[in-house]
Structures are given as structure tokens and as C-alpha cells.
Amino acid sequence: MAETTAHHIPKPDREPPGSYVGVRGWIMQNLLSSPLNVFMTLLGIVFLWYSVPPLLNWLIFNATISGDTRDNCIGTGGACWVFVKIRFNQFMYGFYPSEEQWRINLTFAVLFIGMLPLMFWDSKLFRGFRYKRELAVFLLFIFPFLAGFMFYGGVFGMPVVETSQWGGLFLTLIIAITGIVASLPLGVLLALGRRSNMPVIKMLCIGFIELVRAVPLITVLFMASVMIPLFLPEGVNFNKLVRALIAVALFSAAYSAETIRGGLQSIPKGQYEAAASMGLSYWKMMGLVVMPQALKAVIPGIVSGFIGLFKDTTLVLIIGLFDVLNIVRAASQDPKWFGLAVEGYAFTAILFFVFCFGMSQYSIFLEKKLHTGH
Question: How many CB atoms lie within 10 A of CB 235?
């Protein structure tokens, strides 16, 4: 009897073969799993061998950082980062007075600190924070006006800085953040309006969405810059930046509406019926049951639209606004630095990569945190 019992004692599981786990397993499954993958891997290695070292030499090893004139870069064979170093302040703030730039730094610092508890609400650091709702209301409805006063001035003894002096990365962030924050709620309303049972509301939303999505952003910017003043009463006028902000927000809202509508259509009909059976009103049903599920399903699409919007902010140079790309282009035309546009554009590309990659990674973080398919 003892021999039979001992015979049936389960043996411990064997470790998986080395070709299926770890770095070796990943290489075998993703790079060397078939003759085609082997060929593409070898081709990629050859491409990297001939492209990466020269690029690193130009960007880093042979680049010039020290100095304050173009003469310091002669004969080095690498990037002349002296140009970026000397013009860095202008690339960041445009023509904003240097003695007033603390207003920009303070405002964005407050925004960044205030966003942390909302962005990482589930982390141990902010899990015990009890005023997230109040903080969200402050950032959405009060902070924009405070930021406007800080940037423009004219209150509390701060001198006025006209929007014509705003530029660089500062202006790019203003356009992008305003477009993103304004377009999401507008997109939700447009998506709900397009699915509405009221014919007038539905047709108006469909007409707006299809009209805006049928034209490029450059056209919308031109229309906002030229046509909006024609529809305003005599003596009333918005400056160029406000018109651009309106155009970008409305353009992005039309695309966000279609993304959100796709999320609404993915929700099973039973969710609507269950919410209605509980006696919830239309807005409570959408706000508490349907919309949270729909927005969670389309997080990748929404963030992809926001990344596209952030890159499209460079189009405002068409109407004469000096965003970071236009500032770099203008600086490279200076006779003292003529011919160094590549360094300026490389610096701009790095900035855009950092912000867009950050948004992409936060999108992945949100998907994992809100994932309920386990």
C-alpha cells in the first residue's frame, strides 16, 4: 500500500527549455523562428551597422557643445549644438521677456504638480489623497483663467506681454494642451449628439463632424484666421492666437467624436437596458454606465488623436504664429548661424519625440490600470 501511494506522488514540473524563455527564447521566437525572419534580422543588423555609428558620431561623439560662435564648430564633422545652446531660451519661450519667464515656469510647474494625483491616482503615493475631484474641478475650470492671467499679465502688477511675443515650445504646449482639453468634452457631446434620437441635433452634429473631417487643418486655420472676424460685430475681434486655439479645438473635437462614437457602438445593448431598468436618467446612464466603458475601450484611439494633434500644432506657422518649429526655422536664417538648420530641426524632433512617446507610454499605463478582461 505504501509503495502504491509513493508511486502516485506528483513529481515537480520541469523547467521549460532555454529556447522558450529569457533572452534566448525571445530571440528564437521573434528573430530566428523562420528563414524569412532570419533574413530580415540579418538585413536589420547590416542596416544598423552602417547607419547608427555615423549618426551617433554626428549627434554625440563629434558634436560641438562648448563655445558661443559658429567658428567653434568648424572642422569637427559633427553637430553644432552651440547653435541650440545659444538660442535655447528663444526656442523655449519665443520672444517672451526673459525677466518675466518665471511666470511661465511657475504656471507649468503648478499644472504638472496638480496633474500628478490625477494621472497616477492608483499609485501608493497618491492613493490616500482625498481631494482629487476638487483638484480636477480646479484644473479644468479655474486654472485656465489663472494661467491666462499669468501669461498675459496686466494684473497684480505684472506687465502685459502681448500674444505676439509668445512663441517656441511654450506656444506649442499652449495650443496642444488647449486643443486636447477642449476637444475631449466637445467630442463626447458630438458623439452623443450624432447618436441622438432628436433629428435636428443629430443632423447638426453629423454636418459639423463630416464638414470638419473633410478639410485639412490648414484650411480650418485659414478660415479661423480670416473668416471669424467677418462674423463678429463691428469693433469685436479676437487675436490670432485665440482664433487658432478655437480652430484646433474644433478640428480635434470632430475626430475625437468619431473615435468615441466607435466606443459607444462597442458597448452591448444590454448595458443600456440594464441602466434604464435601474431608473437612471439619460445623462446618469451615460455618465455612470456607458461612457466609462466606451472611453476605456478607445483609449488607444483617443491618445493617437492627441499625439497627431500635438504634431499638427506646427501648422500654425502658416498663419504667422511662432511655435517651436517656426522659431527654429527663423533662427536658422540668421546669417550668423546660416546652414545649421539641421541641428535646429534635430532638436525639435527630439522634443516632439519626448512628448509623443510620453503620451504613448501613459496610454499603455492607463490600459493596464483599467483592464478588466482578466
Answer: 5
Nearest in space to 92 (alpha carbons), one of 181, 180, 174:
174
Check: pTM over 0.85? Answer yes or no: yes
Which residue bears the cell 524563455? 21
CATH 1.10.3720.10 in the chain: give the residue spans: 87-96+161-369
Between CA 347 and CA 92 the distance in angstroms is 11
Contact of 139 with 119, CB cutoff 8 Å = no
Average pLDDT over residues 104-113: 95
Single out the residue of 164, 147, 176 nearest to residue 319, CA to CA. 164
pLDDT tens digits along 60-76: 999 999 888 888 888 78
Domain 87-96+161-369 architecture: Orthogonal Bundle (1.10)
Cα separation, 212 vs 251, in Å, equals: 6
Q: Are 344 and 350 in contact (CB under 8 A)?
A: no
